[in-house]
Amino acid sequence: MIVDSHIHIFPPMGSASGHKSPRHHLRFVQRELATNDRLPIRADLNAQVTQSLPLIKDNNYTFDGLVDRDFRSGGYGRLMWTSEGQDVYKQYLPPSMVNLEALPGVMVATMNHSGVDKAVIHNGHLYGKLNEYQAKAIQNYPGRFWGLAVVDEWKAYHRSQLEVLEHAIKNLGLSGTWFDTRNIFFGGNNHKVEHRVFDTFFDLTKSLKTPVFWNCPANEPSKNSYLSTIRSLGKWLQKNPTIPCVLTNGFPFGFFTSKRGVVFPQEFWDIMKAPNLMVELCFPIIFGGLIDYPYRELRPIIRQFYKHLGPEKLVWGTDAPNVERFCTYKQSLDYLKDYCSFIPDQHMDMILGNNLARLFENT
Question: Does 283 reside within a domain?
Answer without folding.
Answer: yes
